[in-house]
Amino acid sequence: MSPLFTSLLRRRRHHHHHRFLSTHSQPSIEYPLTHPIYTIWASNTSLGKTLVSAGLSTSFLSSSHRKFLYLKPLQTGFPNDSDSRFVYSKFSQFFTQNRPEFSVFASNHVLKSSVLAKDAVLSGGFEVEREKNVDLGLYKESRLIGTEKNRPFFASNCVLKSSVSAKDAVLRGGFEVERENNVNLGLFKESRLLGTEENRPLFASNCVLESSVLAKDAVLRGGVEVERDEIVNLGLYEESRLQGTENWEMRGFSKLVCKTMYGWKEALSPHLVAERENARVEDGELLGMLKGCLGIESESEKGEVLCVIETAGGVASPGPSGSLQCDLYRPFRFPAILVGDGRLGGISGTISAYESLKLRGYDVVAVVLEDHGLVNEGPLSSYLRRRVPVLVLPPVPTEVSNNLMEWFQEALSTFHSLEEIMQSAFLDRTSRLRNMPRKAHDIFWWPFTQHNLVPEENVTVIDSRCGENFAVHKVVNNNVDSITQQFDACASWWTQGPDATLQIELARDVGYATARYGHVMFPENVYEPALECAELLLEGVGKGWASRVYFSDNGSTAIEIALKMALRKFLFDHKIVSDDLVAVNAESRVDLKVLALRGSYHGDTLGAMEAQAPSPYTGFYQQPWYKGRGHFLDPPTVAMCDGVWKLSLPQEIETQNPSVEDLTFSLRENIFKESRHTSNLADIYQLHIRQALQLIMDSSGSTRTGALIIEPGKTFDMHHFLFVIQGAGGMEMVDPLFQRVLVKECRNKKIPVIFDEVFTGFWRLGAESATEFIRCKPDIACFAKLMTGGIVPLAVTLASEAVFEAFVGDSKLQALLHGHSYTAHAVGCTAAVKSIKWFKDSKTNHNLISEAMLLRELWDSDLVRQISLLPAVHRMVVLGTLCAVELRAEGSNAGYASLYARSLLQKLREDGIYMRPLGNVIYLMCGPCTSPESCSNLLNKVYRRLGEL
Ligand SMILES: Cc1ncc(COP(=O)(O)O)c(C=O)c1O
C-alpha cells in the first residue's frame, strides 16, 4: 500500500467504526415458515425499495383476512424520512381512494431511536391538532419494588380526555413520580398525541428502567432527563381503521402492520449516523429484535401473512455496527427481492448487487426495476438466464405534489405478478423442504448408516449453514414448518472451522479461484494458489522438518501416499533396494508392515485400512481383501474422571509397577510437560516398546516394519468406536509421552515416522499442528479437513527432503507414480491459503494467544469439572476445539452400537445442538474461532441434560 494511501486511510479512519468482525453474541435464529418473509434489497439507495414495499401492500391487501407486515430495521433521516410511515400512509390513501368492501386496520410503529431522533419527534416533528376536546391518553406508570426481590408492583394512572389547555399544562409540566427507596426507577412517561388525520394518534413514550438512587433523585428534582448516549425506546405509534364499503363484521378485515425498528436523525449511512449520534446497535441485538418482529400473532393468521423486510441503502451498505447489511442479515437468509436500477449504468450496478447476494448464499427470487426507457431488463434477464424474473415498474412521477396514487394504480398488475412470484417461490421452497427426507431416504446411500435404522422423521433437512450453525427445516406441532438453528457440534465430520465472516470470505475467494483457474493441470506446472499454499504449509505445520508438499484431495489418499513414501524410504535406508530400484538380493523381497496403535483410524480406502487394526469395519463382510498389514500396539490413554486426569495403562505396562504419582494429573498441562520424559514411566514405556519391536522382528521372518503411523495427540477414534471400547474405554487421548518414546525408538531403528494429522491438524486440538503435544517431528505428515476451513476438499502429504530423495533418479520409474484428478486443485488451495492465514492471525481469530501460538481455553474448566463429576458421566476428554463425554454405561448400553445416547442427543437437538450419536459417547466440537461464550452456552445445555439423566 502506498504511504500516501495509508496516511489518507489513517486520517479518515476516525470517521467511522467499521469493524471487521461483529463479536457480539447472536440470538438463536428461528422463524416460522408459515408465511413468506422476504428481504427487499436494492443495488443502490433511492431506487424505490419503499415504493416496491408499498406496492406489495396494495397488491397483497386487496382482499380481506390478510396481514401485511412491513419491517424497516434501520431508518436514518428520521423522523423527516420514515419509510414505514410512507408505506402506511400511501397504502391508506390508496385504500381510501379505492375503498374495497372490507376494512383494514393499519398501524405504524417506531420502536427505538437515537436520542437526537427522539428529540426531533418530541419537538414538533409531528403535528398535534388543536381541537377543543382531545384524546389525551396521558399515562403514567411506575414500578414499585416491594421487599421481596423480583416482585415489582406496577401502578399506573391514565387520564383519557382533557381540554386542550389542560393537555398543554400536562405537556408543559412533566410528571411527578412517587419516591421510592429502590434503585429501580420505573419512570415511564407516555403520551398519545393526536395527529392531523382522524383516528391517527401518535404515541410517544419514554421509559427509563433502572438508575442509581442519586440519578433518580436528579430525575425527580429536575424533570425527566434521558441519557444522551444510546438508543432509547421511542414507542411512537399511530393507527387507523380504514373503513371499507361494507361493515367489517360482514366482510371481515385485513391488517397492515408497519414497523421501524431503529431510527436515527441524520440522513446518512447507518454506520456513520450511529457513531455521530452516539447510538450504536450491535448486530446480535438487531437480529434479536428482528426475530421478535417476525412472528404471527395468532393461529388464525396462518397462511394469510406476507412479511417484507426493507433494508437500508444498497446491498452492501453498512449497518449500524459497520457489518455490511448483506452479511448482517445472512443468519436468517431470507429470500430476496432485488430492486434494480433502470437508469444509465444500472445494469452493471444491478448485476453487482445480485452477485453480492448470491455469493452470500441468498436466493434472489425476482428483480424489479423502474422503467427509465433504457430497457435494462433485457440484458438483465439474459444475464440471469431468464431463471430469475425481471419485472418493470412504470416511470415514477417526479413532481413533489404528485401523491403517486395513479402510479400505484398503474403498477398494480406488476405488483400482483411480483406477489404471485413471491408466493409461489415460498410454496415451492416449503414443499421441497418437506419432501426432502422422503426423497433422500429413497435415493441416497448414506455412509456409515444402516438405512433400516433411520426413520424418515429422523432425517435432518439442512437448509443452509452460517458459521458454526445449521439452519434446519422442521415440521413441528400442528404441522407447522419452521427454520431453526442448530450448532454443528460434530463440525460436519470434523472438517468445519469457519465462523460466519470467514465463510463469506472463503465463498468469495473460492469463487474468484474458480473464475480465474477453474481446475488446472498440476504436474510440471505452477500456479499461485498451489505455490502459496505449499509455502504456507512449509512455514507452518511443516516448519523445521518438511521440504516437500504432495497434494491430493482427501485424508485417506493422503495416508496412502504417505505409506508409499515411507515404505520406499525404508527400502532405501535398509538397503533392500538399490538406487535404481533393483532388489539387492533375492531375500530382499520382504513383506512390509506398519507399526500402528490399536484404535487408530486412517481412512476407509483399502490401503489406509491395511494400516488399521482389525475391527468390525475390516471384517470379512465389510472388506474381504483386508489383511491388516500392521503390528498394533495397545496404547496407554488418559482422560478426566471425577475432575482428575488419569492414565489407563495396558496390562503389560501396568505389570511393570509404574510410580503412582506418574498416573494422575491435577492439571491437563501436566500431561504435556517435558519433565515427564525423564520419569520412571518414560523408562517403562521405552522398555515396553523395545520389547514389542524385538518380538515383532523375531516373530516375523521375512516381514519388516517399514513405517510407524500415529495420530499425534490423538484424542479418540470416532469411526471405530466399538473396537476401541473393547480395549480400554469409549474415548481416548493417547498418552503423548508414549507417542514420543515410540517415535524415538522407531527413529533409532530407521523406521520412517508418519503423523496422521488429518483430524488433529490446523487447530483442532488447540495448536496448529499436534506435534506441539508430543514435541517431536515426523518424516511424513498428512493434513486435510480443517486445512481449507473445511469448505472444499483438499489434502496434503508433507515430506522431508530425505524422503523426497528416495524418489529422485534418472528414471521415471523411480518417481512417485501416483496422482488424483484433483491434485492441487486451485480452488482448494485458495481456500487453504485463506484459512491457514485466518486461523493463525489474532486479528481474525480472537481465540489465538499469539505469543504461545495456541488457542485459549474454549471450554469453561469449572463447568467441565462439574460435568465430569455428574453420576451419569464416566470420563471426559477436553482439548482445543473438542469436548468429549463418555457416559457411564454397562452391557449393551456401552459401545458404538448402543443407542444409549440417542434420546439424550434428541433432546440436545431440540436445544439447538446438532450432535451425532457414538454409542455412549457424546462430543462437542467447535471451530478455532468459536467464542468461549458460545462454547459455554453449549456446555451449559449439555450439563443440564446430563443432570436429568
Ligand atoms: C485421523 C484420520 N485420518 C484419516 C482420515 C480419512 O480422511 P478422509 O475421510 O478425508 O478420507 C480421517 C477421517 O476422519 C481421520 O480422522
UniProtKB/TrEMBL annotation:
InterPro entries linked: Aminotrans_3, Aminotrans_3_PPA_site, P-loop_NTPase, PyrdxlP-dep_Trfase, PyrdxlP-dep_Trfase_major, PyrdxlP-dep_Trfase_small
Gene3D superfamilies reported for this sequence: Aspartate Aminotransferase, domain 1, P-loop containing nucleotide triphosphate hydrolases, Type I PLP-dependent aspartate aminotransferase-like (Major domain)
PROSITE patterns in alphabetical order: AA_TRANSFER_CLASS_3
SUPFAM superfamilies named among the record's database cross-references: P-loop containing nucleoside triphosphate hydrolases (SSF52540), PLP-dependent transferases (SSF53383)
GO molecular function, one term: adenosylmethionine-8-amino-7-oxononanoate transaminase activity
Keyword Transferase: yes
Cellular component aspect of the GO annotation: mitochondrion
Entry keyword annotation includes Transferase: yes
First-listed, main subcellular location of the protein, grouped into a coarse class: mitochondrion
Cell location: Mitochondrion
GO biological process, one term: biotin biosynthetic process
Keywords in alphabetical order: Aminotransferase, Pyridoxal phosphate, Transferase
Family the UniProt entry places it in: Belongs to the class-III pyridoxal-phosphate-dependent aminotransferase family.
Protein name: Uncharacterized protein
Organism in which the protein naturally occurs: Anisodus tanguticus
Classification lineage: Eukaryota, Viridiplantae, Streptophyta, Embryophyta, Tracheophyta
